[in-house]
Design brief:
about 300 residues; alpha+beta; 2 domains; six-stranded antiparallel beta sheet; disordered N terminus
Length: about 300
């Protein structure tokens, strides 16, 4: 399949403790397991790629939209910044698994993918945009499923086949290229460190409380940690996006902190249906000095019950 030419805008440590990382995207390369997980071999086969084991007994699979060419305000968006589909599985006992995910889709892909998911027993919990002013329009479909992990995986693969999502995992690069950002300064300003992935510096900030969905614990790596991504744009600047994961009382405090630091709020919405506590997800965008933006993001994190240095 030839890449679609779509042109326009479009392990973590906190205070010395290793935490789970919840990426918006994995690089356009094959994934490697971080520990032994033979039990997931059938799911690997169903999805056509190996997953990446995450803390909390979670197996995560990334489907970067390397076929999409999206720009936002003149910035060509890397898949790891905002174009990474993913699904994650967690065994919850009795031969059943819980699955959650977020699929990145072009507008014309939404209807056929949704039909295929419904036919395969995978539900939708949200459908919305994450950014503003991108070209072409990109939509994000949040999905959920409970049951046999292999059947759920087959349903996801059948649905993704209705889109232009590359289904063959690319080979892993021999070595990760250097990133044109002072990541140490960013980490100091945020109070949280991250890792370089697909040319993007990615940071994940878990909440303090346990999140549950239908009574089952949802680990941070299944999409309930605040994700912050920095893509270098030259001369110490970075385009940033991601989403803050907040309770209701935190929402407007975070909005005010972001606005005070020149960071635009692009979307406010939910991702799930029956989670406890009730969570809201706020996406953002800016393109400016990376360390200054990190300070602004830290001001917003300080309004939330999250795990950073000093909290």
């Amino acid at each position: 399949m030839q890449p679609r030419q779509l042109v326009g805008r479009l392990p973590l440590r906190v205070a010395g403790v290793a935490l789970a990382v919840s990426f918006l995207s994995l690089p356009c390369a094959g994934q490697q397991r971080t520990n032994g997980a033979d039990a997931w071999a059938a799911v690997d086969q169903a999805l056509g790629r190996k997953g990446a084991a995450q803390p909390g007994d979670v197996m995560k699979y990334g489907f970067p939209r390397c076929d999409l060419h999206v720009t936002i305000n003149g910035v060509q968006v890397k898949p790891a910044l905002a174009l990474g589909s993913w699904v994650a599985f967690r065994n919850i006992g009795g031969g059943h698994a819980m699955m959650m995910g977020d699929l990145v889709l072009a507008e014309e892909e939404v209807a056929p993918v949704m039909r295929a998911l419904q036919q395969g027993g995978v539900e939708q919990t949200a459908l919305h945009n994450h950014v503003l002013g991108e070209t072409p329009r990109v939509m994000y479909m949040h999905v959920s499923g409970h049951g046999d992990a292999v059947k759920l995986a087959r349903a996801v693969r059948a649905a993704l086949a209705q889109s232009g999502t590359p289904m063959q995992a690319a080979a892993a690069p021999a070595a990760a290229p250097a990133i044109d950002l002072d990541t140490a300064a960013i980490a100091r300003a945020l109070g949280v460190s991250g890792k370089v992935n697909g040319g993007v510096y990615q940071v994940s900030v878990p909440r303090r409380e346990i999140v549950r969905e239908d009574g089952n614990e949802v680990p941070p790596s299944m999409g309930v940690a605040t994700g912050i991504n920095f893509q270098p744009t030259g001369n110490g600047k970075a385009a940033i996006t991601g989403d803050f994961v907040m309770t209701a009382r935190e929402v407007n405090q975070v909005i005010r902190a972001l606005q005070a630091n020149g960071i635009a709020v692009t979307v406010l919405h939910s991702h799930m249906l029956t989670e406890t506590p009730r969570l809201f997800f706020m996406h953002f965008w800016a393109n400016d000095d990376a360390t200054s933006l990190a300070r602004g993001l830290r001001a917003a994190l300080d309004k939330m019950a999250v795990k950073t240095s000093g909290h």
